[in-house]
Design goal:
Number of helices: 6
Distance between the termini: 116 Å
Strand content: 15-25%
Helix content: 25-40%
Order of helices and strands: HEHHEEEEEHEEHEEEHEE
Structural class: alpha/beta
Largest sheet: 8 strands, mixed
Shape: elongated
Strand order of the largest sheet: 5-4-6-9-10-11-12-13
Number of strands: 13
Length: about 260
């Protein structure tokens, strides 16, 4: 049996309604987009910065100055996060929270974790594990943070040669990420001092005031293995060491207190 005329009419009406809804949707979408984009209700009226230690709120607001009146709905988190991290090296990442009712953009900063301090008179620099200097502000001023005085201390560096564009130079970054990190794992974070004035004669002073002579970074894994064995043996000994020399790991020497 062939379809009735009413079936054809109903099918046609359904198609017309569907097409009409689609056309209305195409019209409403750009209109709604434009209304949201220009309506003052969706403008950013206030920016709150939740910071930690090293990055000031003023520094963040300066980077965000072009976006204080931007649209809260269409604010690009990813683009602004990348921009902040590029201009403020102390930042590890940034989180954004939008509050439409109060027209507020909350910027939560996550800074790099301090790894060690570098004492280079007259300043003390705090670096992370990648060699980024954390306590230098946007004006190039070195700020003091006494609470980080318990971090491992690195001495013997010339700040004119050791730093480049807000971080350690490559030769020192390699040393920090490799040798020094391994030694910190052995001795702990607190009270350890590294003398890097001569990279062919690296010295470490432990929190127990044991001086360790490592020489250069050549055969460093072998030197670490020998040093670890000596330290483990000493832990069970009643005698107190004064100096450990593993510059020649096949022939290490140990000096004890008199």
């Amino acid at each position: 049996a062939s379809p009735s005329p009413n079936w054809f009419k109903g099918s046609l009406m359904l198609r017309l309604r569907t097409r009409t809804k689609f056309i209305l949707l195409l019209i409403l979408l750009p209109v709604t987009y434009s209304m949201v984009a220009i309506h003052p209700f969706f403008k950013i009226r206030r920016i709150e910065v939740v910071s930690n230690k090293f990055v000031s709120k003023e520094c963040v607001l300066k980077v965000l100055s072009d976006h204080r009146s931007s649209n809260l709905v269409f604010f690009s988190r990813r683009r602004m996060r990348n921009r902040l991290k590029e201009q403020i090296p102390q930042l590890s990442t940034v989180h954004f929270h939008k509050t439409l009712l109060s027209h507020t953009l909350v910027v939560q900063l996550v800074e790099h974790v301090p790894f060690a301090t570098i004492v280079a008179y007259p300043y003390t620099y705090i670096i992370n594990g990648e060699g980024v200097v954390l306590n230098v502000d946007e004006k190039g001023r070195v700020n003091d943070f006494p609470e980080f005085g318990v971090l491992p201390i690195i001495t013997g560096l010339d700040p004119q040669k050791a730093f480049s564009q807000g971080r350690l130079s490559r030769r020192y970054i390699h040393l920090v990420k490799g040798s020094i990190r391994s030694l910190i794992k052995m001795f702990g974070n607190e009270g350890v001092k590294f003398n890097l004035s001569d990279l062919k004669d690296i010295r470490v002073l432990s929190k127990d005031l044991i001086e360790i002579r490592l020489g250069s970074t050549m055969d460093f894994e072998k030197k670490l293995y020998v040093l670890r064995a000596i330290m483990e043996f000493n832990a069970s000994s009643k005698e107190k060491m004064n100096e450990v020399d593993v510059r020649y790991p096949d022939y290490p020497t140990v000096r004890y207190h008199d």
